[in-house]
Amino acid sequence: MSQDDRGRIALVTGSGQGIGRAIAQVFAAGGAKVMLATRSAASGAETQRLIRQAGGTAELLTLDLGTRAAAEQVIAATLDAFGGLDLLLHNAGIFPLQKLAELEEQTLDSTLAVNLKSCFWLTQAALPALRRARAPRIVVTSSVTGPRTAIPGLAHYAASKAGVNGFIRAAALELAEYGITVNGVEPGLIATQAMDNLGDAATLSRGIPLGRLGTPEDIAYAMLFLASPQAGYITGQTLIVDGGALLPENSQL
């Protein structure tokens, strides 16, 4: 698989830390010019610093991708900074723990807005630029939670990610005529700061055949493949990256 992204322009959302930071670093290391979009100015600036320190190119926009206006803003900023867009790498997401019986309307609305509705608004805003791009790609971070599994307290998150997979399939059909592929990655348990809410790494790793949590780079390299020329005939698909956790029929096996 080629990792040469020289000259390609990538927008990476949710790139302040964890999986998003790894995605941004991996693509920048391959030569892509990266627009970072994140809610936290401090974490976004750190991602930018790391990329530039390694010799890469990155610009930063701080915003919350919970609205259509924000999606339009970040696409416009990418075009202003780099003059085009080849890769829409949508990783931004939230998963506040809240059991169904106590679920608040604001929690549900914000989860659906950031995790699901932003897929629509970003794609819509990016479409004119992607139609002009060389080997245009849309790759979205989905999850095994929702499409494959469930976790108590995350019904709202599960619903949003199941919706993301439906979006990926339908968008792939609609955008195929422009040569734009649309795919996703479904992470399992990944060692990020956000994962601390679910338990300690040693306990969580017991149910994973490969015996460890995934790393943010595991997801980033899966995205790198789906965005590569070698994946040009793949669209409407999601790639599960979970260390084999979904393979056993019984969790005790």
UniProtKB/TrEMBL annotation:
Domain of life: Bacteria
PROSITE patterns assigned to the protein according to its UniProt record, in alphabetical order: ADH_SHORT
Residues of the Ketoreductase domain: 8-188
InterPro entries: KR_dom, NAD(P)-bd_dom_sf, Sc_DH/Rdtase_CS, SDR, SDR_fam
UniProt cross-references to SUPFAM superfamilies, sorted A to Z: NAD(P)-binding Rossmann-fold domains
Cited PANTHER family: 3-OXOACYL-(ACYL-CARRIER-PROTEIN) REDUCTASE, 3-OXOACYL-[ACYL-CARRIER-PROTEIN] REDUCTASE FABG
Family: Belongs to the short-chain dehydrogenases/reductases (SDR) family.
UniProt-recorded name of the protein: SDR family oxidoreductase
Organism of origin: Pseudomonas idahonensis
Organismal lineage: Bacteria, Pseudomonadati, Pseudomonadota, Gammaproteobacteria, Pseudomonadales
